[in-house]
Amino acid sequence: MDNTTPSLAAGKRRRTLLLYIPMVIFAVIFMFPLIFMFVSSLKPDAQILADVDNIRAFLPVGDISFDNYAGVFDRVPFWRFLLNSAIVTVLIVGVGLVVNSLAGFALSRMEWKGRKLLLTVIIATLIVPFETIAVPMVYWVSKLPTLVFEDGMLKYDFGWLNTYEVMIVPFIANAFSIFLFTQYFSTIPTSIDEAARIDGASWFQVYWRILVPLSGPAFATVAILTFLPAWNSYLWPLMVVQQEQLRPVMVGMQYFFQLNTAWGEVMAYTSLITIPVLLVFLVFQRAFVSSIAASGVKG
Amino acid sequence: MTATSSVDTAVAAQANPAAARPKRRGKREGHIAAYGMVAPAALLLLLFLVIPVLLAFGLSFTNARLISPNAPRFVGLDNFIRAFVADPTFIRSLINTFLFAVVVVPVQAGLGLVLALLVNQKLRGTTFFRVVFFIPVVTSIVVVSILWRFMYQPDGIINSFIDTLTFGAWENIAWLSNPSTALPAIIVLSIWQAVGFHMIIWLSGLQTIPEELYEAARMDGASAWEQFKNVTWPGLRPTMIFILVTITIAALGLFVQIDVMTQGGPVDSTTTLVFHAVRRGYREQQTGYGAAISLIFFVIVLAIAMIQRFLTRDKD
Amino acid sequence: MRTGQKLAAAALISALALTACARAGEGGGSGDGDGPAQVTLWTHSAGNPAELEVYNQIISDFNGSQDDYEVVSESFPQGAYNDAIVAAAASGDLPCLLDMDGPIVPNWAWAGYIQPLGISTDVTDALLPTAVGVWEDEIYSAGYWDAALAIFARKSVLEENGIRLATVDQPWTKDEFDAALRTLKSAGYATPLDIGAEDSGEWWPYAYSPMLQSFGGDLIDRDTYLTADGALNSPEAVAWGEWFQGLFAEGLASNTGTIGNEEFNRDEVGLSYTGVWNALGSLEAVGDDLAILPPPDFGQGPKIGGGSWQWGISSSCSGEALDGARAYLEFSFKPEYVATFADKQIVIPATEEGTELSEYFGEDGVLRPFTELTQFAVLRPETPAYAVISTTFQTAAMDIMNGADVKATLDQAVKDIDADIENNDGYGF
């Protein structure tokens, strides 16, 4: 990737150093929760509480073991929770990318009646914090029709409670995502579409063959931004899902907050559920880098 | 646009005889395709956002309770009057929410941009730093809040750190128990937690700026600052609007940190609109009143978002 | 590519499918056939293996003991339970049997979400009065145990500092207690009392409203249940507030720290105001030196909070399932189960027979002193308004702790509570 000309080597080295110093300082500031979390996950509760006010909180010293991890697997059906969160998150992110980018495409690059109005409505819906509509939402989804498979045939019923779809469908369309796609797509010159349309491409083909490949950073950003709330969702699954076998990881965290919190196990559990998020982030952030090449093609 | 598209269609029809259709095809097909493309998102938003919001609005004019044997009764504007006249905590919530946003929006946006510029450099290890800066964002906010509560204790690590920096001149503060430091303490934690998120958005904006523009600028002998001013900043305009809107909205919606760390105290110094709405509407089961607070909140945020859009509108 | 048309077609097909197929659950149902009637049960015990084990034992014993009913359980983590259960109530999705925290029982009974228990009075009469939930003279809930708060101390520390060992018959007075704290502070404890102020939520009214009551104040006027005026802002209540505020201002207690009893176990505080559930841990840490003392008498005698998790039956439970729910509850109050709960959870057995069988609370049990404390138990006000009283008191007490003007804070709390009661037309009082 680094193919700048090797001239002015000394100046470049000084500049490099100047860039690394702040990055390292920021890195230290941003790192400590993960270090604290991981280090504490190896300690017994009493020691975590004793160490919390000094530097030992960040050092794996004292009574170190993997007991807390064993405790986690004893206390919660961890793999089940992880699977549930994976199903819910993958579907919200995956289906969401398609649905929201299609809407963003139509809103940014096509001219049609009602476009301005819809854009305004979508921006207005950005402002709704979920906590404030949670109660009417529960009532509402408990009245929605659904299809169920029963006695060998498809039947309908009312009420979405206790299902996967109640954790997924309401979060697929996302005003933030649509807004981000709209913004991003509008930075790409419309002359490309026009040329393709002249070649006989349908609008969908313009979207799929031209805009999508050019929009790596937007897709990566939206994927990351929708992944996080989906993975971290807590209040909603708590309210609409009662069976243990459907619970996601964040609800599982509550298993450790009894009369006296099992801090070591909380830290072990959070370490376990944070790792998948970091992995996903690593994967998607590559899309940023690879898109540098894409933007070169584009010009 | 109409003219252009019919020209396009005419040319398209010529170039591809198989696709030859009546003249108006382009526009009408464009319309239908556009509706098809927005339909799934629009339908879902209608079902799972607009309708619940309207339900909440309806409740705000009643005395509905979460748990009650009595049917809700229409009470007109009682709930709204109560908020402004008889609920001093609501007024404090309003003030605190604004204070929080006024500090967080510029600081978080600026710091996010600095981080994005740093990790956008073609240097070894930027992937590592990107991941590191993103760590607070991916760590559960509940855990983060619990952790910072420990650190803000009088004998906690933050006090002992400042003590070391000032060679012992520092007097320990119970950050979260002091009405004048509690909100600033939560501001610091919140920026720390969320800034990596906005770094990512800035970064995606930076990636949209074609490399050739920088090359051209460099060939003209532009300094790093001039490159930033003339190439980067103008290219970041759409991103900036997005960032401002999202940070403002997130800041105004402050809830979890308050819920975990201070419960709105000490002496109402950290209560916020959403926290207050949840407390009244859900914890205290006063659904109607909670919905009224939510409605006031929506109106305020919508007004701010519109002002922001007006101020940052494209001047061309 | 006509995306729009495709979508429209898809929507049409699914709409047709919806109308063409039958409503689920119609024709050939489950449960009303030949098999045993299913009785659904929710607990707040997920993540608490000790408690869950007892429930599973009782349920399998019950299911094995007869063929008419089958109890099916689902457990929730405690921190999430109330939110989950309120949501289920709002959407009409409650199970037959559910457990709930004592103080919300009147609220639920008033709202019609639970029905009178209807089990044999032989069972409920044998229980501690604070383990039974009553609303309008009907019993709505019953529990296997109750908790109790006490002052934990080290006998050696008290002796060294010349502090009298308080007893149930002769508890510390306010002056004695204050003097003891000052003595311990000068003996080197930075904050001599761990009062638990770092905790939040229901702990606040549970732990500190008994102190208010011992001073002579209360959360609400218990004669009418229509106002908090004259109770929560009475001169006695203000005296409580000023004393409480002084604890923190003088550094006798800390408003930070860690939840639990670690500070006491590590000898960082001289006295700890905490619950029976921490007693075994402290006994391990301190051994014979541990003294379990009644809370001080601030004027009206020592008081502790009463009423803990109890079982109720939802209103939607009917027919065979309702009979099953009652049969299960009667079955579950056997002395050996009550004793097992107490010993696994370290809480006080709700029946005398259970107490005798208990390892820790029986005749020679190491935690026997706690059983004597239950005589001081006061229920939190049995009114549907308690949901608001609880959060209002919590906010007010926290503000007082942090230095707010006591009288003004309590006056505002009274206003908030009274406004809520008025909005609900007195909650039926």
UniProtKB/TrEMBL annotation, chain A:
UniProt xrefs under PROSITE patterns: ABC_TM1
Per UniProt, subcellular location reads as:
Cell membrane
A GO biological process held by the record: transmembrane transport
Task: Answer yes or no on keyword Membrane.
Answer: yes
TM ranges: 17-39, 81-105, 117-141, 161-185, 206-231, 266-284
Q: What is its main location?
A: membrane
Q: Is Aminoacyl-tRNA synthetase found in the keyword set?
A: no
Its keywords, alphabetically, are: Cell membrane, Membrane, Sugar transport, Transmembrane, Transmembrane helix, Transport
Q: Which residues form the ABC transmembrane type-1 domain?
A: 82-284
**Any single GO CC term annotated in Swiss-Prot or TrEMBL for this entry:** plasma membrane
| Membrane topology term | Multi-pass membrane protein
Q: Which domain of life is it from?
A: Bacteria
Q: Which PANTHER family match?
A: ABC TRANSPORTER PERMEASE PROTEIN MG189-RELATED-RELATED (PTHR43744), SN-GLYCEROL-3-PHOSPHATE TRANSPORT SYSTEM PERMEASE PROTEIN UGPE (PTHR43744:SF8)
The family annotation for this protein states: Belongs to the binding-protein-dependent transport system permease family.
Name of this chain's protein = Multiple sugar transport system permease protein
Source organism (scientific name): Tessaracoccus oleiagri
TrEMBL record, chain B:
User: GO CC annotations?
Assistant: plasma membrane
- What is the name of this protein? Carbohydrate ABC transporter membrane protein 1, CUT1 family (TC 3.A.1.1.-)
Annotated compartments: Cell membrane
Chain ranges passing through the membrane: 32-59, 98-119, 131-151, 182-203, 239-258, 289-311
PANTHER family for this protein: ABC TRANSPORTER PERMEASE PROTEIN (PTHR30193), INNER MEMBRANE ABC TRANSPORTER PERMEASE PROTEIN YCJO (PTHR30193:SF37)
Q: What InterPro entries would the database entry show?
A: ABC_transporter_permease, MetI-like, MetI-like_sf
Q: Which Gene3D superfamilies match?
A: MetI-like
Q: Show the ranges annotated as biased composition (Low complexity).
A: 1-20
What is the originating organism of this protein? Tessaracoccus oleiagri
UniProtKB/TrEMBL annotation, chain C:
| Residues making up the signal peptide according to the UniProt record | 1-24
An example Gene Ontology CC term for this record: ATP-binding cassette (ABC) transporter complex, substrate-binding subunit-containing
- SUPFAM superfamilies (UniProt xref): Periplasmic binding protein-like II
Gene3D superfamilies, alphabetized: Periplasmic binding protein-like II
Q: Mind listing the GO biological process terms from this record?
A: maltodextrin transmembrane transport; maltose transport
InterPro entries linked = SBP
Q: Which PROSITE patterns match?
A: PROKAR_LIPOPROTEIN
Give this protein's Gene Ontology molecular function annotations.
maltose binding
Keyword line: Signal, Transport
Q: Which family does it belong to?
A: Belongs to the bacterial solute-binding protein 1 family.
What protein does this entry describe? Answer: Carbohydrate ABC transporter substrate-binding protein, CUT1 family (TC 3.A.1.1.-)
Q: Which organism is it from?
A: Tessaracoccus oleiagri
